[in-house]
Every structure is written in structure tokens, then in C-alpha cells.
Design a protein that fits this description.
Blueprint: H1 31-37, H2 43-50, H3 65-84, E1 91-93, H4 94-99, E2 112-113, E3 118-120, H5 125-129
Antiparallel strand pairs: 1-3, 2-3
């Protein structure tokens, strides 16, 4: 396992998988501007509805393109997960929670099963990241 330094400057780069991406020019648009231009995001209406800065997928733009795109992405992801049979446990040990930064910081918010060292997982991140805990993965 790689040694972790005191800060980012103390850590040694072990391997690089690709070249650093080129910085876009100032002519590049933000995703929120593109979304409003295509009428697929509606920030103004979302602020009216919820009194917040959330966005709303619009049904006006491109005949519901944004909502259909989101549904397609969700369906694709669900199917990929079903093919891989990626089902994770809902219980984990404290070491898994320490490794993902949940413990000790959020101990008061987690559900602990006593007696023993088991907790309910707060997010899917915990079992996924712990699949390869304390390992150095090859490219």
C-alpha cells in the first residue's frame, strides 16, 4: 500500500493512466447555459416552485428530450447492474466505515447493531470502495 503524506505535496505520483486533458478555451459553454438554450433545463421555474436553485427538466424542449434522456440513462445503468449482478450487503464492519471516512465523524448518525461490530451502510460507496480495500490495483 502506498504511503500517504501529510498533505498533497508529500504524496508521490505512482502511475498516470492518461495525459492531462487540454484546458478548454473561453468559448466553451457551461452545461447550465446549454441546458437553458436547448430548453431542457428550467432554472427560473424551479426557483418559483421550490424557492431554491434546483433545476427542473423541461418537457418543452425537443419534445421531452431531457426527461427521455434521463430515463434512458437510468434504464441503461439498471440493466448493466443486473447483468453484472452487482448486489451489495447492507451491513458492514467499522473498518469499512473508517476507510470511507464515515467513522468516527458520523458515528452518532449511523445505525449500529449491538452487540458486535456491524453497522447499516449509509451509502453504496461503502461496500463498493471496500471491495479492494488495502490493495494496489493494476491498470
Amino acid at each position: 500500500m502506498a504511503k500517504v503524506g501529510k498533505n498533497e505535496n508529500d504524496n508521490r505520483e505512482v502511475r498516470r493512466w492518461s495525459e492531462t486533458a487540454e484546458v478548454l478555451t473561453s468559448s466553451a459553454k457551461n452545461h447550465w447555459d446549454i441546458g437553458e438554450e436547448l430548453a431542457i433545463l428550467d432554472f427560473a421555474r424551479a426557483r418559483e416552485d421550490r424557492r431554491s436553485a434546483f433545476h427542473r427538466l423541461s418537457r418543452r424542449g425537443s419534445a421531452g428530450w431531457s426527461a427521455r434522456s434521463l430515463t434512458s440513462c437510468l434504464t441503461y445503468t439498471r440493466e448493466k447492474m443486473a447483468i453484472r449482478r452487482c448486489c451489495h450487503r447492507v451491513l458492514c464492519k467499522s473498518a469499512a466505515l473508517v476507510g470511507t471516512g464515515q467513522l468516527p465523524k458520523f458515528e452518532e448518525d449511523l445505525f449500529h447493531l449491538a452487540p458486535g461490530d456491524y453497522f447499516l451502510i449509509p451509502t453504496a460507496e461503502v461496500p463498493l470502495t471496500n471491495l479492494h480495500r488495502d490493495e494496489m490495483l493494476e491498470q
